[in-house]
Structure formats: C-alpha cells, structure tokens
Predict the structure of Galactose-1-phosphate uridylyltransferase.
Amino acid sequence: MSAEHAFRVTRTTLADGRELLYFDDEAGYVSGQRTRELNDSRDLPEAHTESELRRDPLTGEWNCYAAHRMNRTFMPPKNANPLAPTTDPAAPTEIPADDYDVVVFENRFPSLSMHMEVPEDFATEVDGQDLFPRRPALARCEVVCFTPDADSSFKELSYSRARTVVEAWAHRTEALSRLEGVRVVFPFENRGEEIGVTLQHPHGQIYSYPYLPTRAALIDKQCREYAAAHDGADLFQAVLEAELNSGRRIIAEGEHFVAFVPAAAKWPVEAMLMPRRDVKDFSQLTDEEKEELTHMYLDLLRRLDQFFEGVDSVPYIAAWNQAPWNTTQGQAASADAQGEYTTRYGRLHLELFSMMRSAGRMKFLAGSESGISAWISDTTPERIADRFREIGAQQ
C-alpha cells in the first residue's frame, strides 16, 4: 500500500488582500523546522474587480465580461517574471519568498472573483430586458506555480513534486467547491505561446464557475439522459468499458487509471486519462490513485513532447474535468439539510490535447469550427493512438 504523501500548507495574504498558499514537500518545511516568508512588501491597492456574466438567449450559454483583464501582464522579460521567487527585495514578485516548492494564489487579473462589491440595486437584466439575464461573476480564479524554475516544465518535475501539485489540485478543489454559488471547479494548464500563454513560467490555473460552462453542461446532460434510458447506468463507465473492450485506442493501463484516445477525439493530438472507479473530483482520490495518476500523467506529457519529429515542446492544453454540483451552492450540494446526498453526474478525467497538426503547423479554428461549432478533424483517433503507443514502446 502506498504511503501518504507528506506536504505542508502555509497560508498568507498578499499586499492587496489576495490569498496565497505554499504547498511544501521538502522535509524541513513539512516538519515545521523551516517556515515560509509571509510578508508581501509591495504597496498595492486593495484587490477589486467588476466582472459580470450574461446569458446568450440563442444558445443558453453564459459569457463572462472582465474588462480589467485588458491590461494584464503579457510576455514579460525574465527579470520581470511575476511568477518567479522574490530573489531581489527591490523587485518583489507575486511570491514573497526566495524559493518555493508549489504555490497557489488568487489571480491578480481574474475573470471571476470574490473581491467584488455587488450593489444592492444590481440590475439582473441587461437594459431591463428579461431576455438578457445578467449577474456578477462571483467565484474565484487561482494560479498554480509548479516550480520556481522558469525554464522547466511539468513533464520535468520529479515524481514527488508532481504529486504535490496533485495534492494542491485536490486541496483547492475541495475548498473552492465550498464557495457559495460555485457549480464546478476546473484545474487546467496552457503551455506554449501558440496556445495564447502570456506568462512562460510553468504554471496552471484553477477556475471555479458559478454556472456550467458548455462542455460541463453537455456532459451533465448526456450523463443524465443515459442514466434515465439505462436504469441509472453510468455513461462514463460505459465509455470506459467500450474502449477497453475494443482496445484499439488504449495508450496505457494501470490498476486505477486508463489512458486512451477517445473514439470521437476532436483534436489533432488528444488523449484522455480516466479513473476506473466513479471518482467525481480530485478530493475523492485515494493515496494509491493519486500515486498512479501522477506517474501516468507524467508519462503522457513525455510522450506528447515526442509526438512530432523535430518538435521538443508541443503546445498543449491539459483540462481536468470534474463533476459539477447539482445545486447553486457547493457546500449545500454535498448534503442537504436532512443529510441526504444529491446525485452528481460525471467523473474526473483529463482531456489532454494539442492544436498542432504536424511539426510546426497549427490547426486554426476557422469558419466551420468557430462559426457553427461543426468540427472537422485532419486525422483519426486510431492514428493518434498508434503514435502514442509507438512512442511508449521506444521509451
């Protein structure tokens, strides 16, 4: 049986009121013999945002408007990297320490935020029209710094450090799910300038949403309809069993997780990592599952960077989908006043994908994909799986 991963969480507040948490796995910090710097020396105005949500009556989708993000940090030089440790007191960064293991903090330029004063007369409709619902974008966006090394990447993390990131995802998923109004928590990483990354330092983000974004809403709908038509059966279990029975697109199997290319994969390169049991989110994983997930995720990232000949760093998005809550308050969704648990449809799973269609060439979402959401792929899921397995055999 795997041992519990040892780490220590230290909380502090940045100069503008945002929260920062150190996740340390080094022995000195875990034991308490060493402590973290908790003083942010910067002179910053109090954090404040005014983002909002509006619902599109034609599609039913909620869109977020965060005008304050227009002037957020964009591709700073190394000596002005806000995600690096503060090694020069005269040039403080977002992290008030000269080194760190893993750090999580509230985004300085968030799309959704709890640092918002909502007036009592806030208009819940645009221009007084009930066809256009409107509400404050109250939730929380966090940044996860995987390493203090700006030239590194997630795949280069040691197992222990990557496991600490997994623990951070679990910790923050549980905490953010308890925020009033939050429906789903979404950890993700964007890597590569081609993806639109504005800070090259290895990091990810965690968004909590007070509504169900399109993919989460569609998955929830499909799961409900499948359960209704199949005596309560789990759609994710059916998909996993179908992929395993076929075997054609399986990349790797573990005791607790399976990596495969979905039969209806959209992207030029795509893989899914899914637990064998019905795990709703990171906070429900056992130590054994976290251990295997960490190893298999690192393996997938290493294979991804070998997918194209001559490309050492493939741009990607790592999207950790988690099951949404069924009510508008995460804490209340886990158990109602009578102690009866509600049903959560969906399952934790990774969707790892790249827009790169061949070495150095990106797939751009043009009229068909962007205009009417009609997807056209330049490859097949079977060819993607063959390449992933080929790389694994060479390692």
In short: The CA atoms of residues 40 and 96 lie 5 Å apart.
